[in-house]
Amino acid sequence: MTVNRALFDEVMVPNYNPSAVIPVRGEGSRVWDQQGKEFIDFAGGIAVNCLGHCHPALVNALKEQGEKIWHLSNIWTNEPALRLAKKMTDNTFADKVYFANSGAEANEAALKLARRWAIDVHGEHKSKIISFNKGFHGRTFFTVTVGGQAAYSDGFGPKPGDVVHCDYNDLESFKALIDDNTCAVMMEPLQGEGGIIAPEQAFVEGVRELCDQHNALLIFDEVQTGVGRTGELYAYQGLGVTPDILSSAKALGGGFPIGAMLTTAEIAQHLKPGTHGSTYGGNPLACAVAEAAFDTVNDATVLAGVKEKEALFKSLLNDINAKYDVFSEIRGKGLLLGAVVNDKFKGRAREFLVASMEQGLMSLVAGADVVRFTPSLVIPEADIREGMARFEKAVASLV
User: Fold this and answer.
1) What is the pTM of this model?
2) CATH label, 57-297, candidates 3.40.190.10, 3.10.50.40, 3.40.1180.10, 3.40.640.10
3) Active site (catalytic) residues
């Protein structure tokens, strides 16, 4: 059997259009393809590979748990899940954790819990969910409807009801939408897929205050921002605004699929036995790997290092831009960064991704106008500098 990009077109549903490059091995922040060509990884599996590729702590956790027990279902609990949940609650506002397999599932659980809480406590009328344009919360029908990008939610028939949107960082528009029928507000504490857009402090504080005034739950989608990505364990900690429910995934497993919903004991009690569940959620393999990832990232030196690497990334990107004048802004926080293309390259961010691959660099986009970088949180300085040298060659090839 010849395993190449053509085989994808033969056997895979065409909802993706992947690169012709097929990576087969990774170590740290470097990856090699089938032909042995080396790439520096500034994509990080879309903010998932928080410790790079094949980090010894994760490999060891997987090997050790793989020789003990893989799967039980939630008829039984397991030690890795309990240890991980305890560590997550000890280090956040939350008292309780629900484990799923992905960010979409964690967000689905958060939204279902919010609706159930509102109906139990306030009645059937309290069902409105507010979220924000350009937001992204997953691909289930509920989460894609709550997400603020019609391109992802249109074309599948009738959507779940009582979901409304307004612009991010527009507190007046939000104030006009929220009322006593609102059960929840879902937002990213730094918009990822929508273009790496940070919240204004007055906006995020205002949203929290208005949620309190109207007895609505504030849900932070920290699927992309959580587990060290912004230089805090969770981004809400850097904003000084605490949500009622938080979702986590991506970096939580360091590359192994896992999601989690965190909340308070008072809210959690509304998911009684039988109201929600997951066959694989909280399985021992995923939780053992996630525990190792969580322990490694939840370290003062690692988190401080993220902020240092942010400064280096921004400095090098600004140096490139000073030479070639292709970006209007470098934005983001920690190692969730976006380079916004200027009017000369409007709508052409993907060209930078393609040109980077040709130079041996893996990067991302966030929409048509933003080149996105989400590398390993522990990427060495030498790899940052070499990756940026390759990115500069890619930029030079486009101007």
Assistant:
1) 0.96
2) 3.40.640.10
3) 136, 221, 250
